[in-house]
Design brief:
Order of helices and strands: HHEEHEHHHHHHHHHHHEEEEHHEEEE
Number of strands: 11
Radius of gyration: 25 Å
Number of helices: 16
Structural class: alpha+beta
Mean pLDDT: 95
Oligomer: single chain
Distance between the termini: 101 Å
Helix content: 40-55%
Largest sheet: 5 strands, mixed
Bound molecules: (5-(pyridin-3-yl)furan-2-yl)methanamine
Low-confidence stretches: 19-28
Strand content: 5-15%
Shape: globular
């Protein structure tokens, strides 16, 4: 054997050993992952899911593999968590490990890893702390959050009165009021209801939620690597999202030119001040991109989720007039008709509180939550999940966990009431998610839902132009979000 042949042979043997070793390692690593359906190259488990109903597909796969399993959404390897126990054990008991953020390709296209919502835990930490403090300060200072909500609700009631009991689609009537509450904090002002730029941003937010919940949007989440280079319905969404970004950028510039650091007018001003304070720190997260995108997160996240919940809630009340009637009675008993509602009324109104909880439970705003990611190699229920693996906590399966809700698929406020008609907490109620990346707008959102709904029902009786039996309360889309069908309603002054 000459030297060349020997060397070649040696190389071949080395390479073979390496290949066997790495395959074995991979298999071993894989065998420590939760079980799941066998993936095909590139498309993963695409054939096992229905992209127009990912929630139901994931629930179905759970039947075979249990509440914690691995699935391949295209090239994404994801650990899925179903039911209260699994979600709580991961997100709460191992909070730090499960605090990373997974892929949301539609939003990632715009955010590019900046801003508080769609970023790593490392970036989120300082941005969340700052956002929470700043939101709290704006909710406590000269105008409390409660006052902001009630002021805006006054305009909402006016526009409901202007409908003169005629049927109308409540979508934008609700979203412009909800959005104005968060706008008064992020931008320091509310918008006129007919402001065309405002209405176009509201349309953008609604349409983005719609796109991300369609079959195509879910497919885009799996195959954005290729799909971003191809034409498709995402192009319209992206173009609109750019408009939203440009609005905020413009606003940030204007604020910068008129900034008085001793008198911050809004969230953007506070961020500018923070940027100034940290300008010597090379590792600071307080720079312009994070300002623009964090503001976008708060504005968008604070608009679409609450307004869709209200829209779903009103539809449910149109379907069940007897439930609406009981809220009217409670309002009359606790608040009366001569003063506006406030947050001290809520503990005295267990029925209304239970209905609002049940609206959020049944409405299941974000059925797959926002995807997480483990920040390090993570031991969980005997498995080892490698650092960087994505995790989907299926919040819908927690909100419908049969161990915690008697009739999970039925809209029934009794889920949150005890035998004496008192409000009953339920630990599986987690529409805002839990753990390190729970929704930090939760407090504001819950105040909005209570004050807006009670204010509407203190002043109006709701009526459907079609008989309640014909109202379809099943969702129109279930994907990133759960969206109700569009409908018309009448608001009859009391
Ligand atoms: C969407 C776009 C930008 N920033 C946040 C969101 C979003 C959707 C749902 C939630 O945030 C959770 N509040």
């Amino acid at each position: 054997m000459d030297l060349l042949t020997a060397a070649t042979l040696f190389l071949v043997i080395c390479l073979s050993c390496l290949t066997v070793l790495s395959t074995w390692q991979q298999m071993h690593r894989k065998s420590q992952m939760p079980p799941g359906p066998t993936p095909l190259p590139f498309i993963g488990n695409l054939l096992q899911v229905n992209t127009s109903d990912m929630y139901r597909s994931l629930i179905k796969i759970r039947e075979k593999y249990g509440p914690v399993y691995t699935i391949h959404l295209g090239p994404r390897r994801v650990v899925v968590l179903c039911g209260y126990d699994a979600v709580k054990e991961a997100l709460v008991d191992q909070a730090e490990e499960f605090s990373g953020r997974g892929v949301h390709a539609t939003f990632d296209w715009l955010f590019q890893g900046y801003g508080v919502g769609f970023c790593t835990w490392e970036r989120a930490k300082p941005l969340r702390r700052f956002s929470i403090t700043t939101l709290r300060n704006f909710g406590m200072g000269k105008r409390s959050a409660e006052e902001r909500i009630l002021e805006e609700t006054h305009f909402l009631l006016e526009s409901l009165r202007a409908t003169k009991s005629e049927p109308f689609d409540p979508t934008f009537v609700l979203s412009r009021s909800v959005s104005n509450i968060i706008s008064s904090i992020t931008f320091g002002n509310r918008f006129e209801y007919e402001d065309q730029e405002f209405l176009s941003m509201l349309r953008t937010m609604l349409e983005t939620f719609e796109f991300a919940s369609t079959s195509w949007g879910q497919l885009y989440d799996m195959f954005s690597g290729i799909m971003q280079h191809l034409p498709g319905p995402q192009d319209k969404t992206f173009k609109e999202l750019l408009g939203l970004k440009e609005f905020i950028t413009k606003k940030a510039k204007a604020n910068k030119e008129t900034l008085d650091p001793n008198n911050p007018r809004d969230f953007i001003d506070c961020f500018l001040v923070k940027m100034q304070q940290e300008k010597e720190n090379p590792n600071s997260e307080f720079f312009l991109e994070n300002l623009v995108y964090t503001t976008a997160n708060i504005f968008f996240g604070g608009t679409e989720t609450v307004s869709t919940t209200l829209r779903y809630g009103i539809l449910l009340l149109l379907k069940y007039p007897e439930i609406e009637e009981k809220i009217h009675n409670e309002i009359e008993r606790v608040i009366g008709l001569n003063r506006i509602p406030n947050m001290d009324d809520r503990p005295l109104m267990p029925y209304t509180d239970a209905v609002i909880h049940e609206i959020q439970r049944f409405g299941d705003m974000l059925p797959l939550s926002l995807a997480r990611r483990v920040t390090c190699d993570t031991k969980f229920r005997g498995y080892t999940i490698p650092k960087g693996t994505e995790v989907i906590p299926v919040l819908g399966s927690v909100l419908r966990d049969p161990k915690h809700f008697g009739r999970p698929d039925v809209f029934d406020p009794q889920h949150f009431l005890d035998d004496n008609g008192q409000f009953k907490k339920n630990k599986a109620f987690m529409p805002f998610s839990v753990g390190k990346r729970y929704c930090f707008g939760e407090h504001l959102a819950r105040m909005e839902l209570f004050l807006i709904l009670t204010s509407i029902l203190q002043n109006f009786r709701l009526k459907s132009p079609i008989p309640p039996e014909d109202i379809d309360i099943s969702p129109m889309l279930v994907g990133f979000a759960t969206l109700p069908h569009f409908y018309e309603m009448c608001a009859i002054p009391l």
